[in-house]
Amino acid sequence: MPALWQLWPLRVSHIVEQLGRSSASSVVEGRPKPAIPVQLLLSVLIASFLHGFIAYSKRPFELGVPVELLLGTVNFVVVVFLFCSISTVIYYRKNLQLSLVVLPAILMSLLLIKSDMVWVAMAGWSAVLAPSVLCGRLALHNHSISRIFLASVVALVLFGSLQMIPMWQVLASSEEIAQLILETEPALSASGYSAENAGQIKEFLTFFLRVLPALTVMSIIMQFALGFWLFARWQFIRGNKNLKLPPFSSWRIPFSFTPLVLSGVLLRLFGNDSMTIIADNLLLFLTLLYSLTGISLLGFLLQKGRLSIYLKLIVYLMLFLSHIYGLAFLALLGFVDSFFDWRQKYPLPIGLK
Q1: From the CA atom positions of the chain, what is the Rg in Å?
Q2: In the chain, alpha helices (H)
Q3: Is the dihedral angle over the CA atoms 33, 35, 39, 44 positive or is it negative?
Q4: Is the CB of residue 94 less than 8 Å from the CB of residue 41?
Q5: Domain check: are 309 and 229 in the same one?
């Protein structure tokens, strides 16, 4: 990964410096100035080709696990950069310039990928472009930062799920997952694992494969969240106060998510095998979201209770060491928070804000 940041066009610090050379305020009568650095467009061009080559090109030979992991890490960082930079280009109303720098990379991806996987590449590129373009357009029209993020994430999950369908189809039933686990037994035996250890590994792999769709969706959301944070931070520094990021202690999931929780529970209780797998993934996804806002509410309550930093660390450490029970507690706390806004009902004293 360090080698990536040494690439001159992709250095984030360099781009920030270039962006900052113009006027401190990027907004004139509610609209950003049209001029953007040429280096930013060049960076988008290079990052697009990198992403297209790493994600969609056919490997002429086996590269090995370490190299593939390294390429995956590089691609992760590149996609984060694309989310941020494409949103910035759209925000500055450079739609034509964006098309000129991204379309060649898309065409390269379609040429490099296997013919029966072309639509996967198209869905993958849509998962990068759609939320980024939507983010830039909504920011341009001065929508709230929460609306920008949520609308962009919906577009991201929609197209990201389309890209993942071929992989998810293999995991459509417990029998297919069991068959995949059965194929690992010779490798586990050859590696010298005892029957007990092999059984534990197979149980973990079974759970992992069962919830893999939720984990992949969370991964792409995390990528976009990092890119969105960079985009919002840069534009806020440059004068767009509408993109000020709210403090973490104010994060909460709206009550409108409750029907998703009820749907997941009902599918889990009364659905068939495929429906229970869908329910497991939906509930895991929501559990992770609610646990994040549970941490937010917990931080607010600890701050309101005027606990010292040492006591706060002890509380967080106890939750961390409690593993699944701590996660369940945080998720429940976040779920309750969606019904009742504790922060508004019991605001912090002025001295603690």
Answers
A1: 23
A2: 2-5, 12-20, 38-56, 65-91, 95-112, 118-140, 145-169, 174-182, 185-190, 195-210, 212-237, 258-270, 273-304, 309-321, 324-337, 342-345
A3: positive
A4: yes
A5: no
Please give the Cα distance from 234 to 16 (Å, whole number).
7
What is the C-alpha separation between 304 and 158, in angstroms, rounded? 39
Report which residue type is found at 134: L
Domain containing 46 equals 1-169+211-234
Residue 221 CB neighbour total at 10 angstroms: 20
Identify whether the C-beta of residue 212 lies closer than 8 Å to the C-beta of residue 167. Answer: yes
Q: What is the pLDDT along the chain (353 residues), one digit of tens a residue?
A: 334 333 333 344 444 344 444 433 344 444 445 566 788 889 999 999 998 888 887 766 666 667 778 888 898 999 999 999 999 999 998 888 888 989 998 888 888 877 767 888 888 899 999 999 999 999 999 898 888 998 999 999 888 888 777 766 666 666 666 666 666 666 666 666 666 676 777 777 777 777 888 888 888 899 999 999 999 998 888 888 888 888 887 888 888 888 999 998 998 888 887 788 888 888 888 998 899 888 888 888 888 777 788 888 888 888 888 888 888 898 999 898 888 877 777 776 655 55
Looking at the fold, whether 222 and 302 belong to one and the same domain comes out as: no
Question: Same domain, yes or no, for 95 and 222?
Answer: yes
- DSSP per-residue letters across 216-274: HHHHHHHHHHHHHHHHHHHHHHTT-GGGPPPPGGG----GGGHHHHHHHHHHHHH--HH
Cβ neighbors of 284 (< 8 A, separation 6 or more) are 211, 214, 215
Residue 121's SS3 state is helix
Token readout for 339 is 């019904």
Q: Which residue type occupies 47?
A: A
